[in-house]
Write a structure and sequence with these properties.
two-stranded antiparallel ribbon, alpha/beta, TIM Barrel, single chain, 8 helices, 16% strand, binds zinc ion
Length: 244
């Protein structure tokens, strides 16, 4: 199995260190054929882009730089956080419609839309990070929210499932299999990735192996994810960024 793309990298427009050009050059240096720039959305506290329109600015920057950049396919996307129990994302649909790739993920720190969301979703999820019984209670709320998200938006990939906030990976994998959404094996974080691969295999869902690089040097650092899916004999044709 060989990986030809890294579909999850951050630039200085959110909490990454490199410029779009640096991430693109790093991906080409690793021999990848494709790379995605997927910065955090504007509601993410301390790590997000300045505003929704930043994604359009990044697209324009990449287009303008294209003549001097390496010959590699560049996708400008976003990693958008789920900000309500109804599966709402932190980005307006008009912006999402202009992206090349959409990653949706559960993150704890963002500005909720209103007090109701804050009380019923945001704060209980923060409590779930500290308390085991709160965590189990939020697992089903988050799973339902994430499934709503993939039904309401054109989500390509769900980032690091069950890492920061609890989710039922098996139920999520079943929904992803129906919608064609990929679950992520994220090499930049430690979490139960084996469970993600097994859940995807059980239900026939696809996987994406991504770096979640926040530095250009880490773009395309995918070996540990590749080794995991090979060890668990996950089918190569079900990994969206792999070929034989
Ligand atoms: Zn993330
Ligand atoms: Zn990320």
């Amino acid at each position: 199995m060989k990986l030809f793309a890294d579909y999850h990298t951050h630039t200085k427009y959110s909490d990454g260190r490199g410029s779009p050009a640096q991430n693109i050059e790093a991906a080409a240096g690793r021999g990848l054929a494709e790379v995605a720039l997927t910065d955090h959305g504007p509601r993410s506290i301390g790590i997000g882009v300045a505003g929704p329109e930043t994604f359009i600015n990044i697209k324009e920057e990449v287009t303008a730089l294209a003549p001097v950049l390496p010959d590699i396919k560049v996708l400008v996307g976003a990693e958008a956080a789920v900000i309500g129990s109804d599966g709402r994302l932190e980005l307006p649909k008009e912006i999402i419609g202009q992206l090349d790739l959409l990653i949706a993920g559960l993150h704890p720190y963002y500005m909720p839309d209103n007090l109701r969301d804050a009380l019923l979703y945001t704060l209980p999820n923060l409590a779930a990070r500290l308390n085991r019984s709160a965590r189990e209670k939020m697992r089903s709320t988050n799973t339902k929210a994430m499934i709503e998200t993939i039904h309401s938006y054109p989500v390509d990939i769900i980032s690091h499932p069950d890492l920061m906030l609890p989710v039922d990976t098996s139920e999520l994998a079943r929904a992803c299999a129906e919608k064609g959404t990929a679950l992520e094996v994220n090499t930049g974080h430690d979490y139960n990735k084996e469970e993600i691969v097994r859940s995807a295999a059980r239900w026939g869902a696809r996987l994406a192996i991504n770096s979640d690089a926040h530095y250009p040097e880490s773009v395309g650092e995918l070996d540990s994810g590749l080794a995991l899916v090979e060890r668990l004999r996950f089918p190569v044709e079900m990994v969206i960024n792999a070929v034989c």
